[in-house]
């Protein structure tokens, strides 16, 4: 399951589970889907695209304690993760006073039943995009692992095809000195390989 829709968005705030559970907890600024915006500006050019925000999503789960995995794609640029009020390792340091950017993919495995309340507090001051722009994957560990393995296999196959076609075109273009089209196409394939990689 890709967690795309229904995220409560709190702009300009790095919230904790305790702050959301307290009386007088802030209301979300909006409910968004991941990928709707490329920054904290939410499409408003008068608002700076960098800063801080919190994303919250509650998922209903079946009864009985089970293991679940949350695969977090790159979140720009530093974040903390809380699941059912428990803090999990994030990336970098989102605290504005000690901000340290760090991006990467991370998988978290946890045990839950009944519901999973996911809170991600994000700060970005240094990247082209801000916050969550790709949806996380959620499910039982073996299903998420299979998804990630298939995705890696597909991307590896695309890279292998691009490398093969690129090298053959480049060699054909260099062999036929008068026609540079094949050489340019080969170079384009190799650049695509670098982009996918």
Topology:
Blueprint: E1 7-11, H1 17-21, E2 30-32, E3 51-60, E4 66-72, E5 75-76, E6 78-83, E7 86-91, E8 106-112, E9 115-124, E10 131-132, E11 137-139, H2 141-175, H3 181-196
Antiparallel strand pairs: 1-2, 1-3, 3-9, 4-8, 4-11, 5-10, 6-7, 6-9
Describe the structure.
The chain is α+β, with helices and mostly antiparallel strands and 197 residues long. It has three helices and eleven strands, in the order βαββββββββββαα. The strands form three sheets. The protein has a six-stranded antiparallel sheet, with no helix packed on it. Strands 8-4-11 form a three-stranded antiparallel sheet, with helices on one face. 24% of the residues are buried. The mean pLDDT is 92.
């Amino acid at each position: 399951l890709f967690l795309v829709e229904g995220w409560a968005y709190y702009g300009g705030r790095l919230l904790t589970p305790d702050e959301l559970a307290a009386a007088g907890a802030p209301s979300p600024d909006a409910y968004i889907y991941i990928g709707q915006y490329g920054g904290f500006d939410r499409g408003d050019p008068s608002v700076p695209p960098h800063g801080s925000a919190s994303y919250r999503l509650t998922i209903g789960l079946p009864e009985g304690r089970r293991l679940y995995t949350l695969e977090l794609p790159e979140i720009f640029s530093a974040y903390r993760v809380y699941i059912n009020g428990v803090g999990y390792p994030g990336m970098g340091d989102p605290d504005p006073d000690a901000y340290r950017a760090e991006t990467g993919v991370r998988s978290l495995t946890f045990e839950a039943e009944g519901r999973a309340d996911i809170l991600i507090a994000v700060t970005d001051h240094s990247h082209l995009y801000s916050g969550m722009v790709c949806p996380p994957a959620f499910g039982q560990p073996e299903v998420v692992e299979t998804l990630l393995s298939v995705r890696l296999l597909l991307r590896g196959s695309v890279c292998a095809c691009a490398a093969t076609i690129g090298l053959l075109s480049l060699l054909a273009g260099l062999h036929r000195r008068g026609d540079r089209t094949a050489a340019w196409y080969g170079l384009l394939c190799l650049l695509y390989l670098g982009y996918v990689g």
